[in-house]
Write the structure tokens for this entry.
Amino acid sequence: MLFSCLCAKSWDYLYLLPLAASTVPEDELGAKLLHRTTRTVTLTPAGISFLEDAKNVMGRLDVAQQKIQRHQNTNIQVLTIGCQNEANLDLLCKILKTCREQMPQLYPFLKVIPHRSILNLFYQDELDLLFGFQGDVPIKSDTIYKELFRIPLCCIVPAAHPYAARSELAKEELYLENIVVCNSYALPSKVAEMQNQISQHIPPESTYMCENLQVLLTLVRAGYGCSVLPRMNFINSAICAIPLAGSEPLSYGVFSKKSSQSPLLKKFISIVTNSSYR
């Protein structure tokens, strides 16, 4: 109620407060704001404090109003983009760089949210589009998927490991190694499946479990074991990625909905699907 009064009669409160004694919400505040005599109305210490706070509130409201007006007068076009984990941002960076060059008015609003939660946002139309691996997003009748590229599965080993110099590995060669397995929905389902297949051939004492991609990379860098991940540029020089022979590359692309095909979205998808990210 008090905030409503401030908004509705801000100038009365800020400049006429000493005179308009009948409009001051003293009962609501539970404090005496004005000292009244038959000839004058002056501010009490509580009134002075209230007046300063009210000025600050109205100043912030004025700034917010100016921001909204500037936003409405610009050509900024907002797209809400979702991805499932921070590792995908490495791939998304290349995509957005291309779009920034061709769509300077684009304002990408990125949301990085765990797998199940971001799927709910996508299906509830709170995301304009979603980047991810094809096998991890259920395709419904209203869903459109455009493949951008295919990413090979790789064995991830420390840079000093004997396998680091190899150009290719068979998954059977990992049966004699320690393995780091990540139980996280942030990983593509095909990756988790491959990790579990390999771990079945490795003793429990040689299997290290974790629940986070960064923990997996830390354990591999520290030499606790190998693992399996898609090949991505976020893997630093302390780790080597060796393609797994015979494994099917993962399809990575963009998901949108037939019911949400605005001109802005169509142009964005056209750019990302016709660009090379090699």
Observations:
- The chain has three domains: 2-72, 77-149+251-273, 153-248.
- The first strand starts at residue 34 and ends at 36.
- Residues 45-72 form the longest helix (28 residues).
- Residues 1-24 have pLDDT under 50 and may be disordered.
